[in-house]
Amino acid sequence: MICLSCKEENGIKHPTQTVIKNDEERNVVYKVRDTLENLLQKAISKDSVNFDNWSPFISFKSGDFISKEKKNAIIATMANDSILKVELYELKGKWMKNSELTFSKALIIQFDLRMIDYDFDGSNDIYIQQSASNGFSISRGFLITIDPVTQHMKYHPEARELGNMRPEPNERVVYYSDKYNDCPYIKGKPCIVFNKWQGDKLTTTKIVCPECDELK
Description:
By secondary structure, this protein is mostly beta strands. Helices cover 11% and strands 47% of the residues. It is built from 1 helix and 17 strands.
C-alpha cells in the first residue's frame, strides 16, 4: 500500500494523500493526472477543447461555455468506482480551481454533461445526466448552478429526481416531466411540473396533467 502526497502544478494536484493499494491502481492514478495536465496545457492556447475517455473515466471541456467573458475548464473524473468528482477551473494567466464537488453512488453509463442557464442569471450552469428511462425518455441527474461572480458551484439535491428539466427564461420557470397520470389508456403523456427559484432552491409551484377525457 502506497500513500502519495504531492505538490500542485498547473492547477492539478498530483495525487495528494491518495491511498494506492497496488501497481494497477497507481498506474490509473498517474494516467489520469498526466492526461489532465496535458489537456489543461493544450486548452490555454485553444478556443475550446473537448475530451472524453471511458476507462479510466475522464470528461474534459474547456472554453467560454459559462460566460463569454471568461475561459473555464470543467473536469469530471471517477475518484473510485462510485464517487464522481467535478472540478471547475478558470484561466487567469494559469488555471485556477474555483470549486469542486463530489457525488457518491454516481453512474457514468449514461453520463451526459450539458451547459444551460437554469437559474436565469445570465451565465450557464451544469447538468450531469445520471439516468434516462426507456420509452418516453426521461433524463434525471445532478443540477449544479454556478455563481457568475465567484464561479463557485452549488449542487441542488431538490432537483435530483426532476425529469427532463427545461428552463423557460421568459417566464423564469423550470419545467420538468413527471410520472404519468392515472388514466389507464394514456401512454406517452406525462404531467408537466412548474418550478420557480425561491432563494437558491428550486420549488414546485404548479402541476398540470393531461385530462383523461381529452386523450381517449
